[in-house]
Design a protein that fits this description.
Keywords: Activator, Cytoplasm, DNA-binding, Phosphoprotein, Transcription, Transcription regulation, Two-component regulatory system
Low-confidence stretches: none
Number of strands: 8
Number of helices: 9
Oligomer: single chain
Modified residues (4-aspartylphosphate): 62
Helix content: 40-55%
CATH topology of the largest domain: Rossmann fold
Distance between the termini: 11 Å
Subcellular location: Cytoplasm
Strand content: 15-25%
Domain Response regulatory: 6-127
GO molecular function: DNA binding; DNA-binding transcription factor activity; phosphorelay response regulator activity
Order of helices and strands: EHEHEHEHEHHHEHHEE
Largest sheet: 5 strands, parallel
Strand order of the largest sheet: 2-1-3-4-5
Number of domains: 2
């Protein structure tokens, strides 16, 4: 099972921070471990989590903070050797801010206001990025290209001819939870038949969006089970 992504939410408005934390909790594979309403608190939270052996994986970082800019938070974290990933969430639309954020190595830039659907796509794209670079050691060009492509494009798969986009989205959400599921189990959790569920799962597997493997230990021939690859 893919490890849960631990997220720190930083915003100067407590209600906004709480709302974004709720969005995080609604997104499969993510957990909001803390919120912060100032830059110094955010830096301290990242460092404390690392020292405790439960490091933050991703910081959702507002730019307008009461004590320092969110970009200054990014600089401070890098200067102190913190390699946590940063996703900027802000109302700033000026090119200078976007460019400055890019030079600091952020993995995304989300402009307020936004819907949950847009937010969830950003997190899912980030999860695919982490998955592509998730193993230790060297990587090939294809893995690097796949990782950066994940950050730049929505991950919701398009439905080919003969498949329903709505059904494909529903099956995608089921397998995104990190659990290995067979076609029969997907059918039980939806209104689909086993045959139809397998058809959608195989489409996702052929596109590299889910992994497949044989499940042993059940009567008869082993059946295939599937899990989200991102």
């Amino acid at each position: 099972m893919t490890a849960t992504v631990r997220v720190l939410v930083v915003d100067d408005e407590p209600l906004t921070a709480a709302a974004h934390a709720e969005y995080v909790e609604r997104s499969p594979g993510f957990r909001a471990v803390a919120t912060a309403v100032s830059g110094h608190t955010a830096v301290q939270a990242v460092q404390a989590a690392r020292r405790a052996g439960r490091p933050v994986d991703l910081v959702l970082l507002d730019v307008n903070l009461p004590d320092m800019s969110g970009l200054d938070v990014a600089r401070t974290l890098r200067a102190r050797g913190e390699s946590v990933d940063l996703l900027v969430i802000t109302a700033h639309r000026d090119v200078a801010t976007v460019r400055e954020a890019t030079t600091l190595g952020v993995v995304g830039y989300l402009i307020k206001p936004f819907t949950y659907a847009v937010f969830e796509q950003k997190l899912a794209a980030y999860r695919s990025y982490r998955s592509a670079l998730g193993r230790a050691g060297a990587v090939g060009q294809a893995e690097v290209d796949r990782a950066f492509a994940a950050l730049g494009s929505p991950v919701r798969p398009a439905a080919p001819k003969g498949l329903s986009a709505q059904t494909l989205a529903a099956v995608t959400e089921l397998v995104r939870g990190g659990e290995w599921l067979s076609a029969g189990e997907v059918a039980e959790r939806s209104t689909l038949s086993r045959v139809t569920a397998r058809r959608y799962l195989e489409h996702l597997a052929d596109r590299g969006l889910v992994r497949r493997r044989s499940r042993y230990g059940t009567p008869g021939r082993p059946e295939l089970e599937y899990a989200w690859a991102g």
